[in-house]
């Protein structure tokens, strides 16, 4: 069975550090036996198709190992199929159509984000900013953008996300990855 996936790389090509050129990332994914490899932006978004009957976790581990072998440093990755990405977009509890892409983010996680992680936070203290939990995703509404968000600082603290790999994408990228993986 052929499946299309998105690979989400965390923390690459930021301020000239941990450089992973997109052409090399595409070649690396092709070297792993994937087809129809495409990238989006320079921030670590790749889409590929595979016939391999592998789980997201197996695909993620293979990609992380290949990146470390090729570039000499570890990059945390998440691999998600197009159906999952479409479900994340469809199940967004915020008015995504009425917002600018920079105001809404999906923080993808390697595992469940139960409400107990965030129980000590008072959501009212951060209004009008807000967050909601979904299936291995945290939806984050930041009207002023992520860079100045007090809520983002609070919910993305390593202590709250301990044991998880997370990576955030703005809503423009969320929509583009759904489109690229055929989830539209």
Describe this structure in words.
The chain is α+β, with helices and mostly antiparallel strands and 184 residues long. The protein folds into two domains: 3-83, Alpha-Beta Plaits; 87-180, Alpha-Beta Plaits. It contains five helices and eight strands; from the N terminus they run E-H-E-E-H-E-H-E-E-E-H-E-H. The protein has helices at 22-31, 56-71, 82-90, 150-155, 171-180, and strands at residues 3-9, 35-40, 45-50, 77-81, 104-109, 130-134, 137-141, 166-170. A four-stranded antiparallel β-sheet has the order 2-3-1-4, with helices on both faces. The chain has a four-stranded antiparallel β-sheet with strand order 6-7-5-8. Helix 3 crosses helix 5 (171-180). The model has no long low-confidence stretch (mean pLDDT 92). It comes from Streptomyces gulbargensis. It holds the Pfam family DUF1697. InterPro entries: DUF1697. This is DUF1697 domain-containing protein.
How would you concisely characterize the structure shown here?
This protein is of the alpha+beta class. It has helices spanning 22-31, 56-71, 82-90, 150-155, 171-180; strands spanning 3-9, 35-40, 45-50, 77-81, 104-109, 130-134, 137-141, 166-170.
